[in-house]
Write a structure and sequence with these properties.
- By secondary structure, the chain is α+β, with helices and mostly antiparallel strands.
- The chain has 7 helices and 20 strands.
- It has helices spanning 19-30, 59-72, 82-98, 105-124, 167-170, 184-193, 215-222; strands at 2-3, 10-14, 34-41, 50-51, 54-55, 76-80, 129-131, 136-140, 146-150, 173-174, 229-232, 238-242, 269-274, 279-283, 290-300, 309-314, 321-329, 332-341, 349-354, 357-369.
- A hairpin with a 2-residue loop joins strand 17 and strand 18.
- Helix 1 (19-30) packs parallel to helix 2 and helix 3 runs antiparallel to helix 4 (105-124).
Length: 376
């Protein structure tokens, strides 16, 4: 297995205004590629999407990206994809929470914006590849097909949020930071050596279009404000009220605002969210144990698997791996865990791995909880 051959290509470098994408663009240019930088304007009101280290997509970010492109010595443009971003990412995010699911907008952005809208436009303009600052690696398998693999440094690996890319998209993807066994401080030091002013710029955190980090407030504003409902225990007894089921996620412990402790004195967690009757069910941590799940809308980084197989799975962007068996049946992925896992929520992505290779991704539809012994 070898890295994708580095013949000179016409490369469109997506430059967010941060240090990773700037260094990625610089490395692509240094490797001899014909690089053009582009900043994606994803907000109809670009002055409002950053608060300190949170968010992105501001006029400040576009200026930082332009300055970086000037230093690298590459052409630079700003492309307005705000409407597409609103429809495919923001509205999808709101709709998923309204339905009681927990989406990952970064996956949706990679699927619908960076490697669909942006890539399609790039190819139409004669570019060969889109370059980003993600930490992942594209290699060429023994059969000549492209494969997506984890980054060399697992601490920075971002392959989970790229698991939605298909083989065609991988054939036009470039991740210059993926094989870098360096710390983020060393990436910043490299940016400083290259004269890039973003070397010390803080990383953006949380959801880019919720600059203040108040997801519940954002959803309440979008979904009509206060929508009081009941918080129930596993028996159906009312423990308290909430201001909207959309403000909760499976596995959540904080912010439940239950007036009295559980009989055993242990913390309680969100077990289920029912948007139909606007209820939230809470219970003990062990009630979160999941032994299996089904997932829909699978996307494969290459040839879809046939028959049952043994893999490792990752269930959240910064989560660990767990051993599973999985099989695709009539378009639905059935996954069984070797050991129970906790905090698995419909709407999240399950990404399958074969060693370091990303097999594919699917959206969790249902989960199977481990049966618990009745209290005696």
């Amino acid at each position: 297995m070898t890295e994708t051959p580095q013949r000179p290509l016409r490369v469109l470098a997506a430059m967010s205004g941060g240090v990773d994408s700037a260094v990625a663009a610089a490395r692509a240019a240094e490797a001899g590629h014909d690089v053009t930088g582009v900043h994606l304007a994803l907000s109809a009101n670009p002055q409002s999407f950053r608060t300190g280290a949170r968010g992105c997509c501001t006029i400040e970010d576009s200026r930082d990206a332009r300055r970086a492109a000037d230093v690298i010595g590459i052409p630079f443009y700003v492309w307005d994809l705000a409407e597409r971003f609103r429809e495919d990412v923001v509205e999808d995010f709101v709709a998923e929470y309204e339905a009681g699911r927990t989406p990952n907008p970064c996956l949706r952005c990679n699927e619908k914006i960076k490697f669909a809208a942006l890539l399609d436009k790039a190819l139409a303009l004669g570019f060969d590849a889109v370059c980003t600052g993600h930490y992942a690696t594209v290699v060429t398998g023994a059969d000549g097909n492209r494969e997506l693999h984890r980054a060399s440094d697992m601490a920075k690996d971002q392959s989970y949020v790229l698991g939605v890319l298909d083989e065609r998209q991988l054939a036009h993807a470039m991740f210059p930071l993926g094989d870098t066994l360096t710390t983020k401080d060393e990436i910043r030091a490299e940016a400083e050596r290259r004269g890039l002013a973003v070397a010390k710029k803080p990383d953006s955190h949380d959801i880019c279009f919720i600059a203040d980090g108040d997801t519940q407030g954002f959803l309440a504003n979008r979904l009509g404000g206060r929508a009081e409902g009941d918080i129930l225990d596993e028996s159906g007894a009312k423990l308290g009220t909430h201001d909207g089921a959309f403000g909760f996620t499976i596995g959540q412990r904080k912010g439940l605002r239950i007036g009295h402790p559980a009989p055993d004195g242990k913390p309680r967690y969100v077990l289920d969210i029912s948007p139909v009757n606007n209820t939230v069910t809470v219970g003990p941590a062990e009630a979160l144990d999941v032994t299996a799940l089904t997932a829909i809308k699978p996307r494969w980084c290459g040839t879809p698997p046939s028959g049952p197989g043994t893999y490792t799975a990752q269930l959240r962007a910064h989560g660990g791996e767990t051993e599973v068996t999985a099989e695709l049946t009539d378009g639905t992925l059935h996954v069984t865990f070797t050991e129970p896992v906790r905090g698995v929520a419909p709407g999240q992505a399950v990404v399958l791995y074969d060693g370091t290779r990303v097999v594919g991704s699917a959206t969790i539809a249902t989960t199977v909880r481990r049966e618990r012994a009745a209290a005696g």
